[in-house]
Amino acid sequence: MRVLLAATSGAGPFGPLVPFAAAIRRAGHDILVAAPISAQARVERAGLPFISFADPLERDVAPVWERVRAATPDEANELVLGELFGRVRSRAALPGVELAIDAWRPDVVVRESCEFASAVAAEARGIPVVRVGVVQLVMEALAVRTAAPAVDDLRRWAGLEPDPAGARLSASPYLTLTPASFELPGEPEPARTLRFHDAPPPLRAVRPPGEAPLVYMSFGSVAATIGFYPGLYRTVIDALAELPIRLLVTVGDAADPAELGPLPANVQVERWIPQAEVFTRADAMVGHGGFGTTLGVLLAGVPQVVVPLFADQPFNAQRIADLGAGLAADAQDPAGVRAAVERLLAEPAFRVTAGRVALEAQSLPPIDDAPAALQALAADGRQRRAA
User: Fold this and answer.
1) pLDDT, position 387
2) What is the mean pLDDT of residues 328-341?
3) Which listed CATH number (3.40.50.2000, 3.40.50.720, 4.10.410.60, 3.90.550.10) goes with 2-196+364-386?
4) Of 334, 292, 354, 330, nearest to 132 (Cα)?
5) How many CB atoms lie within 10 A of CB 211?
């Protein structure tokens, strides 16, 4: 079986595809990642084969971000999902995605849910499409609803029937590593939802006696590119460095650690590190509420302070707080962030709750069951094309 995995350029949307790619490979199948040129380093760092398609032109992207900066949070979400991902990025991507599919001839296309061009190109060729969730279901539904009118333009170009409400986008099988308890209560599931768990988290390292607790801080790969760096980072670092902790900070490939200036002795800053390894040693995390990072921390059983900045992050912060697996804090209140970290380190209940959700995830079917589901879809697609 040949599987094409289609992604946008961000680390957050790409991350959930990686465990599925590994499972497909372990099952002996061939994979190829189709993503924008700007994602090349990220895909290659994951050790996956890569074929590129075009990034949108800056002249098309810049006006959307201008509108986002002037918008309310809800308006900004609709602009990013509908205009940026649904229209601008999809239009730029469609020709390259079509070429990738025609050249490689996959049996099934697996897309992350912010990548829409592959859904159109695959349907036009009768190839089954599977969606991998990259946010909570409440945001998945918003993404479909908001992007559907723009995606409908692509459908017309590809000769497909109109789908202005996104029924075709919603109908594809939905794969996710998210345990049900992390979803917003009462949010309906897509009709063909398959939840899996990845490999169990590595065993936690034992902190030597007398060594200060390790707090990990990351605001993801996007925040540093849209005005939060270095100001917010330095403010939070200064607040946390006053605690008797070791603080490990990552700033992303686009940021220069030197811009943070001289740092306290208990602070270490890196551009990027393997987070899974850090989670085995961290006593707590301070994050921005990006879905992949937030879920990864939760499933590692690490309590977290979530400082939401944009997009779906307030939803994720609220869910972590409601579960009792951590606390939400305000980016404008560094003293509040520090106080929240102190609570996490002092009150074991947060770690216990995070561990309970991690155990729930481990009760789901293993991700190595996913390739069999894809094979069944591929076989059905071949039969339909032959009919």
Assistant:
1) 65
2) 95
3) 3.40.50.2000
4) 292
5) 9
